[in-house]
Amino acid sequence: MSLTYLLPHYTLDDYLVTKNVWISKIEAFWKEYYGRTNEEAEIEYLKLAQNFDMFGMEHFDVKDDNKRKCLLAIGPTGLVLCERESKSKRLLEFNWNQIENFMIRSRKFIIKMKADNENSAKNQIFFVKKAKTNKLLFEQSVGNHELYKLRKLPDSVDLQHMKLHALEERDRRKEEHANLINERKLRQDAEKRREEAESQLQKFQLAAAAAKEALQNSEKSQQNLLEKLHRTEEEAQLLKLASSETGVQRSQLLSALSVVYAIINNYYAENSEQERSEILQKIQGALLLLEVLPPDFLLTLMADCLVNNLPSVEELQPLLNVGIMKLPKVSPV
């Protein structure tokens, strides 16, 4: 907001005060008198303004008897003659109680002073540039002088009633203003409590949403753990079953190998063809015990026979080529 909107330009021109000082003073007064009625604000403003030297004064360009240019100001306490270049520098003062009357003649303005006991009254004469301006100066001087006289008189009955009514009206407005301020404060407090309640409710909603999400994640994690536990139990059962089958196969393999190695050990002790044929027949019977075993065990057995110079490959090759399932069903010895 512009400073000229808050203060008239002549106030800014008459006083050597910086813009920041004006703004700080205006803000301080606003904080101090905020919430008052217009009438109360005007009274406070007048109380402050009356401390200024030029308060309530209207200036007119005049010349005194010596043809010196100066300003004649009309104020609430009387007339003041001051220099034209500086309104604050006063040359003469004429209080209302010292003035008897006013007179004008064309462009001449005459102030008739009251005579005291010692000295006779000397009229003060000033010259105004225009007769119209002189008439305005005369009317305002007479009007202010009459107001001063009225203030000195006791109040009439009607005026007393008017003052009493004005006082009652002022008290009523003051009470209404106090109620208005109280209601405004209550409304502001209620609005503040409502905002706090909304903020608290929003926090509770966020906390509830977070708890719900955590619960859902917990249920999902629990479901995943149950599924993993179920799969682990199934795998344990499969491993247990596989271990049992592997034990049976290992037992069968050991039995078959013991028979085969027993037969092979007797192979070197017998040299006749008939005994050789019987040994091969026993090998066939021993291999029948390996029908339930994987072919890899047969290959292992074949390699072991070759390493230990046991029956030659040519003798065992026909048996391996035919396969265990196609061997003649000879009962093992």
Could you explain how this protein is built, in words?
This protein has helices at residues 3-6, 9-14, 19-33, 38-49, 131-152, 157-267, 273-288, 295-307, 313-322; strands at residues 58-63, 69-74, 78-83, 90-95, 99-105, 108-113, 124-128. The radius of gyration is 65 Å and the shape is rod-shaped. The model is unreliable at 306-313 and 319-333 (pLDDT under 50). A hairpin with a 5-residue loop joins β1 and β2 (69-74). With 333 residues, the protein is an alpha+beta fold. It is built from 9 helices and 7 strands; from the N terminus they run ααααβββββββααααα. Strands 4-3-2-1-7-6-5 form a 7-stranded antiparallel beta sheet, covered by helices on one side.
What is this structure, in a nutshell?
With 333 residues, this protein is of the alpha+beta class. 63% of the residues lie in helices and 13% in strands. The chain has a 7-stranded antiparallel beta sheet, covered by helices on one side.
Total number of β-strand segments?
7
- Classification by helices and strands: alpha+beta
Main sheet record: 7 strands, antiparallel
The percentage helix is 55-70%
**Strands of the biggest beta sheet: in what spatial order?**
4-3-2-1-7-6-5
- Straight-line distance between termini: 122 Å
- Any low-confidence stretches, pLDDT <50, length ≥5? 306-313, 319-333
Oligomer: single chain
Overall residue-averaged pLDDT value: 76
As a percent range, the share of strand residues is 5-15%
Number of helices: 9
Global shape: rod-shaped
